[in-house]
Design a protein that fits this description.
By secondary structure, this protein is α+β, with helices and mostly antiparallel strands. 40% of the residues lie in helices and 24% in strands. The strands form seven sheets. Strands 3-9-10-16-13-12-11 form a seven-stranded mixed sheet. A hairpin with a 4-residue loop joins β14 and β15. The protein binds glycyl-adenosine-5'-phosphate. The site of glycyl-adenosine-5'-phosphate (GAP) has 19 residues, from β10, β13, β16 and α13.
Length: 512
């Protein structure tokens, strides 16, 4: 069922111009995607809402746009050159490469599915009398599977945390995991592969090998002092940035969930040492509010606290969304101490301190980071919004219930017929409204078909011009979610749209 739902999301994304596979006419490029004519607008609107909520609503947060290329020492200092690795294993027969931990997780998933099947059987057998909690605690088949899951998880975690690559391979051998392509258990050793892409810059620059940034955050850290000094910023203050990041993800799966080229929206908040835990709590609260302002059912979001923290962090939490394939990370909030700035101080030899007039001393600020993947957020909204509605009498409709302000088009202007002066009148309305909103204009097909097409791309309001419009100077507004139709005067349209689709209504929810 979930798999079916996710397939629907992917095919809807393609059919209505949201997402295409990159270079599709050449059979595509694994884990790389292009955004089409509707997708680019939804993506732009999410980015804009994030930007306004960060930069416009906080007087102490400013934005930057750093280059994708950075001095290679940046990535030595940040730890990415030495530590940004995935443990990979090759099957000698198929010559296919896999992430060792993903192979093991897929093995675990089979046992999770076994448990779910047992539970489903129980529900079928006992109906309303079925006590699921009790069943999960006592059924011998469920318990056997759960023990297996716990045992494998423990061994995997221990090996990953100790960087024990031989231990990971042994686990794959012990579990008798076979390559899904060749079916053989003929594995190489597990090796670490760095996730950064590198390319060459002309040797005359002295630095030939450079990297494509794997996160936008480092562009903020290296500009910390530039912004602080030129913007006369006082702690606490933040720097926000959106932009592309690149990671050599070997495992291409789950659509735009894990891509080689993706976009991040990151904000580093610089604070006095000792206050970082309070700011961490503040940003955790702010960010979940942002997610919830978009109308996603609250039970589909959860926090996932990191139990084992990275060596530079003193608190970390993920915001996870309940995708059709389970709860997965959409955003991370990390208290990163003074690690990054101190590293850049050391590697660059330049002081990156702040003079605190209140304390009358200089120090390296601490940092609380919020980091969200724009593409993953896009997938959250698309997945959550796509509904197949039963209209009764055997009729259904596909509707994309996106937050109106983020929809690709805020309204569609539709002359009922393509004659009698209706297109001309509709065109006048269109030309006026498009000064403020992204509007769609369409004359072809029956009005019913046109409404359905707008439902499928999430347009919140349709404006229909008919023969009466010529006489009464009014139109029919048709609302996406309720399908309600209302007759209004032409000079009322603007105010109604403002109420229905303005981004400021989303922003207001953040102030509660
Ligand atoms: N500066 C911190 C940082 O980069 P991260 O957890 O590695 O942290 C932050 O990435 C966010 O970027 C993730 O929560 C996710 O939404 C997104 N992200 C990471 N890798 C991605 C990928 N390969 N494809 C799409 N989004 C990705």
């Amino acid at each position: 069922m979930s798999e079916e739902r996710f397939k629907n999301v992917i095919s809807h994304a393609k059919e209505y111009g949201f997402v295409f596979q990159s270079s599709e006419i050449y059979d595509g490029l694994a884990a790389v995607y292009d955004y089409g004519q509707t997708g680019v607008m939804l993506k732009k609107n999410i980015r804009e809402y994030w930007w306004q909520s960060m930069v416009q609503l906080h007087e102490n947060i400013v934005g930057i746009d750093a280059a994708i290329f950075m001095h290679p020492k940046t990535w030595k200092a940040s730890g990415h050159v030495d530590g940004f690795n995935d443990p990979m294993i090759d099957n000698k027969d198929s010559k296919k490469r896999y992430r060792a931990d993903v192979l093991i997780e897929e093995y675990i998933e089979k046992y999770v599915q076994k448990i779910e099947k047992e539970v489903a059987k129980g529900i079928k057998r006992f109906g309303d009398d079925f006590d699921e909690e009790q069943f999960r605690k006592t059924n011998p088949n469920v318990l056997r599977s759960q023990n297996k899951i716990d045992e494998v998880n423990d061994r995997m975690k221990t090996a990953l945390e100790a960087g024990d690559l031989d231990g990971l391979k042994q686990l794959i051998l012990d579990l008798e995991i076979a390559c899904p392509i060749s079916g053989s258990k003929n594995w190489t050793d597990v090796r670490q592969f760095n996730l950064m892409y590198s390319t060459q810059m002309s040797a005359t620059d002295g630095e030939s090998q450079i990297y494509l940034r794997p996160e936008t955050a480092q562009g903020i850290f290296v500009n910390y002092l530039n912004v602080q000094k030129t913007g006369r910023m006082k702690l606490p203050f933040g720097i926000a940035q959106t932009g592309k990041a690149f990671r050599n993800e070997i495992i291409a799966r789950q659509f735009i969930m894990r891509m080689k080229e993706f976009e991040q929206m990151e904000m580093q908040f610089f604070v006095q040492p000792g206050t970082e835990k309070d700011w961490f709590a503040y940003w955790k609260d702010q960010r979940i509010k942002w997610h919830q302002s978009l109308g996603v059912a609250p039970e589909n979001y959860r926090f996932h606290d990191h139990v084992k923290l990275a060596h530079y962090a003193n608190a970390a939490v993920d915001i996870e969304y309940n995708f059709p394939f389970g709860f997965k990370e959409v955003e991370g909030i990390h208290s990163r101490t003074d690690f990054d700035l101190k590293q850049h101080q050391e590697f660059s030899g330049k002081k990156l301190q702040y003079f605190d007039p209140e304390r009358n001393e200089s120090y390296v600020p601490y940092v609380v980071e919020t980091s969200i993947g724009l593409d993953r957020m896009f997938l959250v909204l698309l997945t959550d919004a796509l509904k197949e509605e039963d209209l009764g009498e055997g009729q259904t409709r596909t509707v994309l219930q996106l937050p109106p302000a983020l929809a690709p088009y805020q309204c569609a202007i539709l002359p009922l017929v393509k004659k009698d002066g209706l297109p001309e009148m509709a065109d006048t309305i269109f030309k006026k409204l498009r000064l403020k909103y992204n509007c769609f204009y369409e004359e072809k097909d029956s009005i019913g078909k046109r409404y359905r097409r707008q439902d499928a791309i999430g347009t919140p309001v349709c404006i229909t011009v008919d023969h009466e419009s010529l006489e009464n100077n009014d139109v029919t507004l048709r609302f996406r979610d309720s399908m309600e139709q209302r007759r209004v005067k032409i000079d009322e349209i603007s105010a109604i749209l403002e109420k229905e689709v303005s981004m400021s209504h989303l922003l207001e929810k953040l102030l509660d």
